[in-house]
From TrEMBL:
PANTHER family for the chain: [CITRATE [PRO-3S]-LYASE] LIGASE (PTHR40599)
The enzyme's E.C. designation: 6.2.1.22
Record's keyword annotation contains Nucleotide-binding: yes
Domain N-acetyltransferase: 1-129
GO molecular function annotation: [citrate (pro-3S)-lyase] ligase activity
The protein's name: [Citrate [pro-3S]-lyase] ligase
InterPro entries, A to Z: Acyl_CoA_acyltransferase (IPR016181), Citrate_lyase_ligase (IPR005216), Citrate_lyase_ligase_C (IPR013166), Cyt_trans-like (IPR004821), GNAT_dom (IPR000182), Rossmann-like_a/b/a_fold (IPR014729)
UniProt keyword annotations, A-Z: ATP-binding, Ligase, Nucleotide-binding
Reactions that this protein is recorded to catalyse: holo-[citrate lyase ACP] + acetate + ATP = acetyl-[citrate lyase ACP] + AMP + diphosphate
Length: 372
């Protein structure tokens, strides 16, 4: 390594050469290139790319250093540069993915472990109080006067859009619990905006007793907890993506609210969603954790005309302008909003509008794939 290292930021979408060199470096380090990264900090030594670190919003990922140059100060300088870049772009609360063997290094740089899939990946954040402060806010919303053995339920929905199926699941869960906590995914990458989704859910569950409606957070079904990550072993990507999110729920969110059961709808169509439900049972009920197990209750979806109701079917019908069939699948406020605001936003037979107007990004795909 020479004494003249050149650090600079690059938009990978604008330079084929930079993108090619980053892919090659990541490949030598056993990592995958991620299409959703918005900017990279790269380092060149005499013109040769020797280090890179990517930013996707406030998530640091795709950090790689040439294997021949590890062990020196390059790692610390690279991380300092990408953190500084994140601050310049308005992100002070950062998340970072790394392999478990690198955790001690990042701890020395001010990051703190949140969840780990043993042997594969650790999610960290750059504050010691982030998850604790969030759980303190949740804890303040615990209902008073419940007996120690109360059955406390949890439901997480994306509601893109809110359907009669969501409403049915919430009512069914509430009827089986002493109290139910309902979360609406706050990541704003779905076809229906978060503001509209939350408002529809709020209207749709009004009158259900013993229920607290919560805004989502970055600690639940978000870009941070559902990453497109870096493994060459493609078979473990989905497992790691769901595991991080579910471990955060079991180890932090559920204890804060005393949640003992998590409710989810069955998935008759999508193999990915069926896999997610199976992962939920493993990580919430069976995997080793110091936190109490959370029992997973899988309820059969309600049907309309013999077909299970799903938000993806509503979106498909919206693309084909089939308002009559949509009316039978959603509450009246959802129908009116779709007709007045969202029908004009899509072209007939366009791709499923989960993400930014077209092909969904990874968090949006997985939020829907999670049966929510």
């Amino acid at each position: 390594m020479t004494d003249e290292l050149d650090f600079y930021a690059v938009d990978p979408a604008t330079s084929a050469r930079e993108r090619r060199d980053i892919r090659a470096l990541l490949g030598r380090c056993g990592l995958d290139y991620e299409e959703h990264i918005q900017v990279f900090v790269v380092c060149r030594d005499a013109g040769r790319l020797v280090a890179c670190a990517g930013l996707e919003s406030n998530i640091v990922k795709c950090c790689a250093i040439d294997p021949d140059l590890r062990g020196g100060s390059l790692s610390l300088t690279l991380l300092s540069e990408v953190v500084h870049l994140a601050y310049e772009r308005g992100h002070s609360h950062l998340f970072l993915y790394t392999r478990p063997e690198n955790v001690s290094f990042f701890q020395g740089c001010g990051f703190y472990a949140l969840a780990e899939v043993p042997g594969y990946v650790t999610l960290m954040e750059n504050t010691p109080v982030g998850i604790r402060a969030y759980c303190d806010r949740l804890r303040a919303q615990r209902p008073r006067g419940l007996r120690p053995d109360a059955r406390i339920g949890g439901v997480v929905i994306n509601a893109n859009p809110f359907t009669l199926g969501h409403q049915y699941l919430v009512k069914l869960a509430a009827a089986q619990c002493d109290w139910l906590h309902l979360f609406v995914v706050s990541e704003d990458v779905s076809f229906v905006s978060y503001r509209d989704r939350f408002a529809l859910v709020e209207q749709g569950v009004r009158g259900i007793e013993r229920l607290t409606l919560h805004h989502g957070s970055q600690y639940m079904v978000s870009r941070a907890t559902f990453p497109d990550y870096f493994f060459k072993e493609k078979g473990v990507v989905g497992d790691c993506c769901t595991a991080i999110d579910l471990l955060l729920f079991r180890n932090h969110i559920a204890p804060a609210l005393g949640i003992t059961h998590r409710f989810v709808g069955t998935e008759p169509f999508c193999e990915t969603t069926r896999k997610y439900n199976a992962d939920m049972k493993f990580w919430l009920q069976g995997a080793g954790s110091t936190a109490p197990a959370v029992t997973v209750i899988e309820e059969a979806r309600t049907r309309s005309g013999g077909t299970p109701i799903s938000a993806s079917e509503v979106r498909r019908l919206l693309r084909s302008r089939d308002l009559d069939r949509i009316r039978a699948l959603v509450p009246a406020p959802t129908f009116e909003l779709l007709r007045e605001k969202y029908l004009s936003k899509i072209l007939p037979f366009a791709p499923d509008p989960l993400g930014h107007g077209g092909e969904p990004d990874a968090p949006a795909r997985r939020a829907v794939a999670a049966g929510i």
